[in-house]
Amino acid sequence: MNLRKLAAAAVLAIGGTMLAATPAHAANIASNPGFEDGLAGWSCTASSGATAVSSPVHGGSKALQATPQGSDTGRCQQTVPVKPSSSYSLSGWVRGAYVFLGVSGTGITEQSTWTSSPSAYAQLTRTFTTGASTNSVTIYVNSWYGQGAYQADDIVLDGPPGAGAPAVPTNVTGTSTPSTATLKWAASEGATSYNVYRDGTKVGSATTTTYTDIGAPAGSHVYQVTAVNAVGESARSESVTLVVGNDTPQVPATPTGLTGTGGTTTATLKWTASSGATSYNVYRDGVKVGTATTTTYTETPSAGSYSYQVSAVNSVGESAKTAAVSVTVGNDTPPPPGTPTGVTATVSGTTVTLKWNGASGNPTGYNVYRGNSKVGTTTTTTFSEVLAGGTYAYQVSAVNPTGESAKSAPVTVTVGPGDPTSNRVLVGYLHASFANGSGYVRMADVPKEWDFINLSFGEPTSVTSGDIRFVRCPVAECPSVEPDADFIAAIKAKQAQGKKVLISIGGQNGQVQLTTTAARDKFVESVGAIIDKYGLDGLDVDFEGHSLYLNAGDTNLSAPTTPVIVNLISALKTLKAKYGSKFVLTMAPETFFVQLGYQFYGPGANGSADQRAGSYLPVIHAMRNDLTLLHVQDYNSGPITGLDNQYHTMGNADFHIAMTDMLLAGFPIAGNTNNVFPALRPEQVAIGLPAAQYAGNGYTSVAEVQKAFDCLAKGTNCGTYKPRGVYRGLRGLMTWSINWDKYNNFEFSRNHRAYLDALN
Questions:
Q1: Secretion signal: which residues (predicted)?
Q2: CATH for 341-415?
Q3: CATH for 43-158?
């Protein structure tokens, strides 16, 4: 789980040992790193109010100050020329509640880090390597949504400098004709392309040193040229003036780009304007049927297929006709299906079964809604799911390629009490591959209170290899570590007591990116080998850092396209198929990857958001029918907006109530009501917490945790936040970690085990 190293540092601090490192001298290639020249060289978001202040500063006389506003995190950034395949170190001094320092555009892996230091400057550092074709990177600093002003100073990018923007083009000359202007110039060193400007406005680009401006308006025009490469664009060249056109009118050119679309009763044509045209003639099957003065035309012929052409006209004459386009008029598209009727619901134990009559209009499937959330799709006229105790309202709609019908009348069912007390679980992570300052715990000595024991961690041989290895803690770090034979025997003994033992993949240091199908297949093979060797019950997915992200345009929850997402889903489904119904699958994402999806999903429409935001959602959604437990880490988190559209901060009951309510009520992704993350079943959800104050940021007292559970599972003891329902089947609690709980005199496990056992 996150901040593994931070927790170890905390133990050193408790023991009175403080270590200090002297930073190496940096050959800084960032411009205006201390903001002594104001914001020169930096670009800041419009609403951040970014400015250079004289206090507080870390060094020199100035520092940056910016303030997040709404969805604007107050980002300031600059693009720096770098060399391909080279190593760099990024550092900076920051001050504020939550401040992030990072770099994008490396060509390999984006890097960022953060700290919370509201009263004093703290240093952030990150290293990275540029890709083989990377010539520039963007370094940035920003805060978090809903926070106050932050400061940043002395930003250092240490590494070999790259080439800058290319030189200004020289020797620009030009010639003109009645309808064109042609420019030529001398090549600029380092340029990969050139931009051409007419009268101050960019009109085209070229990869050679010549450009013809076709169709320029008649008259005198001033032309300039700039050189472009990956770093940026040069200043504009000296200007050259060219005169286009003559005094003799010409027949307009034939229109281009003709397209046509047919509707139920109409045919609509569109085309690109012809220079010098005053109107256009429209021909259907060779016969003129109309005239237009714009570049669009609509008519209402009888149903059938037609061939259309367009010509351009002025006082001199008429151009040749365009190539023909075919348009079909008439309604060949079926209407949406009818609304399903006769919806009934029956309950058997905790299983709800719906049935209905087939809808008219040839539906291809049916959507099932529980409350306001879509919970399933089926091609038959029946649907079943298992629920915790409570009362639920269902509706059904029919779909076909044309659209979706109205929802049926609601039908209400009541399910009996939720899972028995014995199914309330405690999930804990066991430091099986390291000690981390908390001390090693032998498998045989794991206390009886724990129901799920997650072995931490399986990690990859490299970020993109997919080859997962589980290496048990070495004797040098864990003197009391047991032999493999004893370890495996203890696992079997725990399983005989009804416990589940899983391998947890990832953690803070184990970044896993399944970017290829080869990495996916290696992941399946290597994880299966670990499960088989130790006789484990399944897998816990604890991907953190930059393991998961969404590419631009990947916005459909049900049909993701980003390779690291698609390949992980495929790998998990393969493992599930291999081990069958007894395979246990759990996940432990951070709030950034799940609940933040209510506001932000991937890089967003303008590409300015963090591409990791909400990136666990398509994985959870794809595996929801195979998912045993989801225990989001309600810690190491910035403020998160809940379903009440208010920010919630970790460390109290309201935060856990709000975050859990989002999972059990469902929510629209990035505010899009047509792209909804459906609710999970209560028995699939546990609350994730640190076991002690030094196990992670966001420690919550025993009383506040149980207050949150009371509110969610019983509807009592609620605070300011009111959940959307009562979730009697809420499964239990997860913590990082079993070792830190022992270090803290078993405060977490003994108090919460007694509480869960007494719930019913």
A1: 1-26
A2: 2.60.40.10
A3: 2.60.120.260
